[in-house]
Amino acid sequence: MPIHPLLVKTKLYKSILCLIKPFIRTYNYMTFLDYVTKNRKHGYINDYYNKNTGYNYRYQLHETILLKLNINQLPVNYLEFGVAEGNMIKFWASKNSNENSLFIGFDSFEGLPESWENKAKEHFNNEGKIPVISDGRVSFVKGWFQDTVHKYLKNMDFSNQSIFHLDADLFSSTLYVLFQIHPFIKKDDILIFDEFSSVENEFLALETFRKCIGKDWGFQFLGAVNNFRQVALQIK
Ligand SMILES: C[S@@+](CC[C@H](N)C(=O)[O-])C[C@H]1O[C@@H](n2cnc3c(N)ncnc32)[C@H](O)[C@@H]1O
């Protein structure tokens, strides 16, 4: 008897699944460590290995990119996927002085649609409230990415350099966004991941996306902080 119907009939595959799941996690983690090994000495900023990490160090990564790539005065499209209270979009708008820049934040403002690491579903729930930022260049697109991003992006002008800040934490949300922005990504655009070392999520989403797009974009590694928790890449 072939193995296929035997596993189905006995439901033995369920026990095998439980047994092999930790190995799949380990595989992803080792793939991540391989990425770290290749890039740990690269970038404009890289604190690997830093014993004293802190979430606010992420601002150093963003600030370094703004300064080293001279994008604090250029007209840019800054698109942030996962905004919550708007801390990072506010930071970018305060650091880039060009009047033609746009800062667009996408979020349901209802929190995470699934649990992530130790955070429960709906964590970051802003009760649907959009952050108030008194800068006419800043706008928000409220709703689930799956309902909003495609419609919004197809009408956008992508001639300026774009910075795509992926901060939705989850594998599903991040992968969805990567495929949506894919047609619009061009040379010199920047991708920033806020939870890259969440290997089952943002890291795996990027790995999956890279496998699927059918061409090997050269991603230039711009930097990382908090031991690759936050990572920035540029399209070559
Ligand atoms: C970590 S928070 C963003 C933090 C913010 N970028 C900052 O720097 O302060 C993640 C956000 O992603 C949003 N999010 C995740 N998946 C989403 C989806 N599929 N559609 C809309 N919003 C989503 C959540 O609502 C949450 O507010």
Shape: globular
Largest sheet: 8 strands, mixed
CATH topology: Rossmann fold
Mean pLDDT: 96
Structural class: alpha/beta
- What's the arrangement of strands in the largest beta sheet? 1-7-8-6-5-2-3-4
Task: Determine the strand fraction and express it as a percent band.
Answer: 15-25%
Low-pLDDT runs of 5+ residues are none
In angstroms, what separates the terminal alpha carbons? 52 Å
What's the CATH class, please?
Answer: Alpha Beta
In angstroms, what is the radius of gyration? 19 Å
The strand count comes to 8
CATH architectural designation? 3-Layer(aba) Sandwich
Helix content: 25-40%
The DSSP helix count reads 7
Give the helix/strand layout.
Blueprint: H1 3-10, H2 12-39, E1 45-46, H3 58-68, E2 76-81, H4 87-95, E3 102-107, E4 138-142, H5 145-153, E5 161-166, H6 171-181, E6 190-193, H7 199-212, E7 219-225, E8 230-235
Parallel strand pairs: 1-7, 2-3, 2-5, 3-4, 5-6
Antiparallel strand pairs: 6-8, 7-8
The structure holds S-adenosylmethionine (SAM).
Write up what this structure looks like.
- The protein is 38% helix and 18% strand.
- It has an eight-stranded mixed sheet, sandwiched between helices.
- Helix 3 packs parallel to helix 4.
- By secondary structure, the chain is of the alpha/beta class.
- Helix 4 links the parallel strand 2 and strand 3.
- It has a single domain, classed as Rossmann fold (3-Layer(aba) Sandwich), CATH 3.40.50.
- The site of S-adenosylmethionine (SAM) has 21 residues, from helix 4.
- S-adenosylmethionine binds next to helix 4.
